[in-house]
Design brief:
Blueprint: E1 2-5, E2 12-15, E3 18-21, E4 24-27, H1 32-38, E5 46-53, E6 57-63, E7 70-76, E8 78-85, E9 96-102, E10 108-111, E11 115-121, E12 125-132, E13 141-143, H2 164-167
Antiparallel strand pairs: 1-2, 2-10, 3-4, 5-12, 6-11, 6-13, 7-10, 7-12, 8-9, 8-11
Length: 183
């Protein structure tokens, strides 16, 4: 397994060891002991899968209460995945990191609690999996506007398909600090 640091503390790209031959491949997607030394010592309490078609953008989501660290990866297809530091007081507040995740490259992306997260599907469809460090709390969820001009994220589409909630996200600068996670 190789772990690549990004410019954001704690946000890493993981390249699991893949064992393949003419029959296919095998890879370990999570091992508490192995990942604790290289990725995170967090315990995961919930696994989720989403399926989306090309052009769907989900995010940028976060939770103030029950903030979720996430280990994300793609089982089928490809996505452009983004983590944004929204922790009040962080030296990297408002900065983001991105990675292309696909069934082909088998990369994983670890996003610590306190970061907003989103992805855009770039293949015809994508089956997206993520492990979470805390339970989902819909009452504590926030959404940073996907195309916030201050963030200037180079999404792979200018006209994504959005949920009603994501279409009316809030620009990061317009959030009251008490609604954001702290550093």
């Amino acid at each position: 397994m190789q772990v690549h640091k990004t410019d954001l503390p704690g946000v890493v790209i993981v390249e699991p060891k893949v064992f393949g031959d003419e029959r296919g491949f095998f890879m370990e997607t999570w091992n508490q002991d192995r990942y604790a030394g290289m990725v995170t010592q967090e315990t995961f309490v919930q696994d989720n899968i989403s399926f989306s078609r090309k052009g769907v953008l989900r995010g940028l989501h976060f939770q103030k209460i029950n903030p979720q660290g996430k280990l994300v990866y793609v089982l089928q297809g490809e996505v452009f995945d983004v983590a944004v530091d929204i922790r009040v007081g962080s030296p990297t507040f408002g900065r983001w990191a991105s990675v292309v995740l696909s069934a082909e490259n088998k990369r994983q992306f670890f996003i610590p609690a306190g970061f907003a997260h989103g992805f855009c599907v770039t293949s015809d469809t994508a089956l997206f999996a993520y492990k979470c460090t805390d339970k989902y709390n819909p009452q504590a969820e926030g959404c940073v506007l996907w195309n916030d001009p201050a963030l200037n994220i180079p999404w792979p589409t200018d006209a994504p398909e959005l949920s009603a909630k994501d279409a009316v996200g809030t620009q990061l600068a317009d959030f009251s600090e008490d609604l954001l996670p702290t550093f």
